[in-house]
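My current task is to audit a protein record that another person submitted. My question to you is simply how this chain folds and whether the tokens agree. This is what I was given:
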Amino acid sequence: MVKSFKSRNVGIIIFIVIILACMGAFVYLLSTGIETDTTGRVDTTGHVVQEIPQESKQIIKISVLAPLTGVRAEAGNYLRRGVLLAQKDINAIPRNKYVFELIFEDTQYDPRQSVTAYTKVRDIDNVHYIIGPYGSSEVLAVAPLAEKDKILTIIPAAQASEISLMGDYIFRTQINVMEEAPFWAEYLSKRIDEKLYIIAINTDYSVSYLKPFLEVYNKTNAVGSIQYFDSKESDFRTYLLKLKKLSAKHLFILGSPRNVGQIIKQSRELGYSMNYYGPSPMEGQELIQIAGYVNESIIYPYPYDDKSQTDSMLLYKHKYTKEYDSGPEMISANGYDSLMILSLCIERYGDYVDDVKNCIYTIKNYTGASGILTFDKNGDVTKPLIVKTVKGDKFVKYDD
């Protein structure tokens, strides 16, 4: 009997201890700021993150200036895909105070049209933030206006070195030609023991690229000739026949995927093939669609490795492939990072352009879709370069 009584008392005491412990835990949770509202979600630290009702969020307009039609439409649509995916991810975050509305304007890869598009989004849409334009000539036309108007602009593709000097409100998630051109010149100078010939698109990009390229390349090797073509040109037979007379064996093509594809195809039609080299912007399915069989006949540098095992790049690849049923490439990843970085700084400091600008300058070792980004004093980033080629219908890392 005594034993039974003691057992009951022990059981009651244990029960009371458990109740007191639960009450204590509840009081502790309240004291640490975690709310019991069922609309909250628990984050990785164990704290409840309050969801902000969608109707309470402030809308931020972002203009995307891109060539959605014309000779660089393929690249423009890569950019469009990247920023749309970022918008989807950002607007789905419950705790964010802001949602993003994207305003796309077609620049047609034309500086004048880019200025027209810029004027429209500034005066009519009243945007404070721009992603784009795409090409270097477009950026050099728009950037001085954006700097004067204090419209924060992030460039996802243009590489001209002059962009670095455009001002405090101009950033880019693409590398500067001053990083790519010397790397590529040194690589080719060790590979080629005969004259290198160049066919280049007549834009600010080529001028900016060739200056540092030739400074490095001409130290040990020789360039045979440089021929320039218009951005809308499509018949390259005259240029190629000149090279055929010179028995040129090595050709560096500074141009778009369409330009490179047309030159390789027309060279083959003339019964004359060479070893081809390109810059990073030449990657694009349009090259393969036009040129047909290319298999390892061209190599080029690239500041984006889609085989990277970096967590952020793997996650982006998974999201992109699921959304678009194809693999990502550099421009879409740069576009994604551009909008994500804007969101990061706007969430931290609000819709205040100067504060957002200052925030971007402080970003170091940001793990993004396009790699690890650190912004320097000019608003530029640096990224490691790899060498790629074409195998079948795929752009792949080159095994030297």
Observations:
- Confidence is low (pLDDT under 50) at residues 1-7, 16-48.
